[in-house]
Design a protein that fits this description.
Number of helices: 6
Helix content: 10-25%
Mean pLDDT: 95
Largest sheet: 15 strands, mixed
Order of helices and strands: EEEEHEHHEEEHEHEHEEEEEEEEE
CATH superfamily of the largest domain: Zn peptidases
Number of strands: 19
CATH class of the largest domain: Alpha Beta
CATH topology of the largest domain: Aminopeptidase
């Protein structure tokens, strides 16, 4: 069986060739002989209809221990049929391939978080070179960028798509529309002030329709998360006229459309006041009131001591909560998002 084509020279990737083509893009290691082989699939549809977007890209494995995106994009790369499509789709199931192989958030090759490496550097360490490849080789081919995430071993998330607060109204409204195509219970408007170098943020700066999302947590593969990410991407293709058919209602049990909520300020991300063992008392996605008990922090250096009660600082929906029991002082403990009036 013929496998993916090995690419050393990026100019050898034909982004306009009709049909479906699989590649392994070689990025040389920084301090040893060898390569990180980043998987890439390019599909140019064979249908003659005119799509409403120049192209769509989807990424998994920006963080290596977030598996829902990796599984989703791999399945899409196998399942999508160019005979049924028009326009261009670019699929990268394991962007930080070295982190994926190690089941870690950051690359073990250079210690860099891929989602902090943009816009990248063609002469930098391996993660920065991969980021530069995305910005200079993939972004010019597409108008829509999807980056599929999960909580890994850090945070539990209510199922959501996400984007940053965007000043341009037309771009913001289209992003909200595309985010809703994944039919998650929530659409989260989240802060861009906590970190720099994010893949979606770089796409946003270029005026692209950039959507992120949290489709699971716990270094597992969420059944519902993969379903929403997989069918949601196909809905995106349908919306832009790249795939025939009607938009699919993914969650038939939920009548309401996705709920748009906002946590765009740094104070929305509440840190642990001390190191301890976290006992959650509220389910992810639940509505809570200011002053409600969210959980307890336990100190086992004195097992007779009372736990520290952590109470909600405001009304809203609990979108994220620290997942492992142990938490260090200063690490984000929970996020409460508030409804956006539309």
């Amino acid at each position: 069986m013929h496998g993916p084509t090995l690419i050393h020279d990026f100019s050898k990737i034909d982004f306009e060739k009709p049909g479906k083509h699989h590649y392994n893009v070689a990025f040389h290691h920084d301090s040893s002989w060898g390569y990180s082989l980043v998987p890439l699939t390019v599909i140019n549809g064979l249908e003659n209809s005119m799509p409403r977007a120049s192209g769509v890209a989807i990424f998994g494995g920006t963080h290596g221990n977030e598996w829902e995106g990796q599984v989703t994009v791999k399945r899409l790369a196998h399942d999508l049929d160019p005979a049924e499509m028009s326009g261009r789709a670019i699929l990268v199931p394991q962007l930080s391939e070295s982190a994926c192989g190690a089941n870690t958030r950051i690359s073990p090759l250079d210690g860099v978080n891929m989602n902090r490496a943009f816009p990248g550097n063609p002469r930098g360490s391996i993660s920065y070179r991969i980021a530069n490849f995305v910005k200079t080789r993939i972004f010019p081919q597409v108008r829509v960028v999807i980056d599929v995430h999960a909580g890994g071993n850090e945070g539990g998330f209510a199922l959501c798509t996400s984007f940053h607060p965007i000043p341009d109204r037309a771009q913001r409204e289209e992003m909200n529309l595309v985010a809703a195509l994944f039919d998650t219970p929530f659409i989260l408007v989240y802060t861009s002030d906590m970190a720099s170098g994010l893949l979606p943020e770089e796409a946003e700066k270029e005026g692209k329709i950039a959507i992120g999302g949290e489709f699971g947590f716990g270094e597992s593969v969420s059944l519902s998360g993969v379903r929403h990410a997989y069918e949601g991407f196909k809905n995106v293709l349908r919306h832009y006229g790249m795939l025939a058919g009607n938009i699919l209602k993914i969650d038939e049990r939920r009548v309401a459309p996705p709920r748009l909520v906002d946590a765009s300020k740094l104070e929305d991300y509440v840190p642990a006041p001390r190191t301890g063992i976290w006992e959650p008392l509220v389910e992810l996605g639940a509505d809570i009131k200011q002053g409600d008990l969210v959980g307890r922090l336990h100190d086992f250096s004195d097992h007779s001591s009372a736990p520290l009660e952590i109470r909600s600082h405001r009304d809203g929906a609990l979108l994220m909560m620290h997942f492992p029991a142990h938490i260090d002082k200063g690490v984000t403990l929970y996020v409460i998002a508030q409804d956006v009036q539309q």
